[in-house]
Amino acid sequence: MANLGPGRPRSEQRPRRGHTPRAEILDAAGELFTTNGYANTSTRAVADAVGIRQASLYHHFAAKDDILDALLAETIAAPFELAERLRADADPAPTRLYALAWFDVRQLCAARWNLGALYLLPELRTERFVAFRLRRDELRGHYETLAEAVIEGAGAAGIPGAEVLPFRLVETVISIRSDEGRAPTYAEQTIPDAALRMLGWAGDLEEARSDAALLLERLAAD
Amino acid sequence: MANLGPGRPRSEQRPRRGHTPRAEILDAAGELFTTNGYANTSTRAVADAVGIRQASLYHHFAAKDDILDALLAETIAAPFELAERLRADADPAPTRLYALAWFDVRQLCAARWNLGALYLLPELRTERFVAFRLRRDELRGHYETLAEAVIEGAGAAGIPGAEVLPFRLVETVISIRSDEGRAPTYAEQTIPDAALRMLGWAGDLEEARSDAALLLERLAAD
Fold first, then answer.
1. CB–CB of A122 and B205 under 8 A?
2. What is the tally of structural domains in chain B?
3. Are the C-beta atoms of A215 and A99 separated by less than 8 Å?
4. What spatial distance separates the first Cα and last Cα of chain A, rounded to whole Å?
5. Is the separation of the CB atoms in B162 and B198 below 8 Å?
6. What torsion, rounded to 10 degrees, do the Cα atoms A191, A192, A197, A199 define?
7. Co-location of B205 and B139 in the same domain
8. Is residue B164 in some structural domain?
9. B34 plus B115 within the same structural domain
């Protein structure tokens, strides 16, 4: 196995985040996949990093790709749930798109490992990950539906095809985080602001932001 | 080695793009790295795909990471050269940023393999690739300088930090191409248009596009 990052000492206690062995396995795998690479990481290395035996790991995950699938699912679960709830919401489209982009950027920044960096793995294009790909396509679809509504409401001559861009702009957090070595917290404002502007929306961005904050609070309280 | 894509038959003739053995090696490696993965590809597999012996490959590249480095350099060489020339150009900043983004999107779409997908490899964060990373940072710096000038000229209350986004937006071509399985040629217009709009530039986009086309023609003729 190529050792690409600084070595992490194996401690006798469990140094892992998570209250369950499953969560600890995911945390260790998230670190190894993003720092040493997916292909370079064996299930044995994951078990070692958690401080459990490989047989115990197999009790939770039958194979390495099951671990990857679970990690990938985590990256979209919360924004997906929010997007589904926003569909049924009566707030204006700019407020809803702002809320979704803000929430999604925040969770991509807050995640302990930059798991979105795994989206470009060639392994993801295999049959094994078709369910994940479809789910992420659905999330992208939610973004596009909201973006189309923003463009329609903006009235101005829009940019043809711009509805695909807010989802993509949100995911640039992954590249920024990879290049800068830390989560770009400034992006929580910059990216939702820019997403509305590039759809031709000329309204007040501070208002959009405070409306989105209220909307997110309301949904969190429901 | 995991076989992740459909197998490509080894032919007796050289089926590779390129007029030199070096170019053929790069083409084969570009395919294997993007379809099977970098870690999953041996120099032996690259040599086999070209139809040469491994010893002959080593005559051109001493190690696998030298092949990766050469491929990565290719992805930024042309936009980098253009960006350097645009610095000295007297055209307005929106025209120059439009030209750079358009040219860069076009080359990312036209490249035979989606090599930008390799930017997120953990291997790139090692010492070996520091020269490439610095070079790409310089390109990003050129984008940001142009974007700052566009924001300043736009006069409107800008989005704080938006100058980092045009470079990132251009590179979303890589994710789109990976997800859609083909180059998003529509992005050649959508992305430069959106880059100007998110910087608060409210001018005529068709004019920006035709000015940028003239600028690119002029520079190509020089």
1. no
2. 2
3. yes
4. 48
5. yes
6. 110
7. yes
8. yes
9. no
Cβ distance of B178 and A120 shorter than 8 Å: yes
Name the H helices within chain B. Answer: 21-35, 43-50, 54-60, 64-87, 93-110, 130-154, 165-180, 187-198, 205-221
Residue B155 pLDDT grade (very low, low, confident, very high; cuts 50, 70, 90): confident
Q: Are B38 and B121 in contact (CB under 8 A)?
A: yes
Tokens representing A58 are 């197999």
Residues A104 and A209 grouped into a single domain: yes
Domain boundary residue, one of B9, B39, B62: B62
Write the DSSP symbol of residue B100: H
Query: Cβ B4–A39 below 8 Å, yes or no?
Result: no
| CA proximity to A124, closest of B123, B4, B28 | B4
Task: Please compute Rg for chain A using Cα positions.
Answer: 19
Q: Which of B13, B29, B62 represents a domain boundary (last residue)?
A: B62
Question: B159–A197: do the CB atoms touch at under 8 Å?
Answer: yes
pLDDT tens-digit profile of A43-88? 999 999 999 999 999 999 999 999 999 999 999 999 999 999 999 8
* pLDDT tens readout for residues A93-139: 999 999 999 999 999 999 999 999 999 999 999 999 999 999 999 99
Contact in structure between A83 and A139 (CB atoms under 8 Å): yes
Residue B95 lies in a domain: yes
Q: CA nearest B40 in A: which residue? A: A39
Please choose, from the candidates B218, A191, B194, A170, the residue with its C-alpha nearest in 3D space to the C-alpha of residue B184.
B194
Q: Does some domain include residue B15?
A: no
Structural domain boundaries enclosing B82: 74-221
In whole angstroms, what is the distance from residue A8 CA to residue A33 CA? 14
Cα separation of A39 and B122, whole Å?
Answer: 11
**Residue B37: partners with Cβ closer than 8 Å, 6 or more residues away:** A38, A39, A121, A122, A123, B2, B4
**Residues from chain B contacting residue A178 (CB–CB below 8 Å):** 119-120, 125
Exposed/middle/buried for residue B78 (C-beta within 10 Å: 0-12, 13-18, 19+): middle
Instruction: Report the complex ipTM.
Output: 0.91
Residues A93 and A197 in one domain: yes
